[in-house]
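Hi there,

I know you've been waiting on this one. I reran it after we fixed the sequence typo, so this is the corrected version. Both the input and the resulting structure follow.
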Amino acid sequence: MKHTLAFVIALAAALAALAQEKMEILVLRHRQPEQVIPALTPLLEKGGSLSGMSNRIIVRSSARNVEEIRRALAAIDTPLRRLMISVKQEEAAEADRSAAEVSGSIGTGAARIATPAPRVPGAPGIEVRRGENAARARVYSSRGRSDERMIQQVQTVEGAAAFIELGQSFPVPLRQTVIGPLGAIVSESVVYRDLGSGFRARPSVIGDRVTIEIAPRQESLSAVVPGAVRSHRLSTTVSGRLGEWIALGGGSGATAAEGSGVTSYSTRGSLESRRVLLKVEEIPD
């Protein structure tokens, strides 16, 4: 008798819960189901269900829980914020070169000692002559600097991926040698190589702070090795305030070399630095 009574009570409770269960379709105005379901799922009562289809959310739960989810959805289903992503890539290079050398000839009668003429004829210097004897000393020094700055911008909305790339095709000389029965055959042609610079990004915004996954890259032809490509790549996730420049990274390098001969001495060096900056701004409606 007791077991029968307990069964009847449990069945009545289950039927009462089933009677209280409610299914409702909530229409989204701004967001997609996959954007709001993760935030709504923790609010769902045990035994309830939540699914999405097109621009609708289907909720099956108690009437009280459905109303709670409806209020939460109203706070979440807001217009996506439009964003402008700017990436600035800066590069500065300095190069200097200096050389000093002496030349001339000196002797008596048939005996004479001479050194080659200077390799930099236009360089400033001094020359001393006495009869057929002459001595020259020259000094050469140069310094150059180049600055390159590139800013790229792309518009997107929060949570969406963005991509931009600007490029150019460069002609590259190609020389091929084929060994055949009649000997070597050399052919020369020109091929075009596509080089580009740009970035991929995916921003997310909470309040006035942005977190962004970004991967910028920059390619250019080498000024030292013909046909070679200089490539700079970076991939990171950073966080900062909207409207502020955020440093993503950078690098620097230096080279130095010197040479000397019997009557000459030369040095050369270069310094290169590079940095990448990011800014995300909200575009007002």
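Quick highlight: The radius of gyration is 37 Å.

Best,
R. S.
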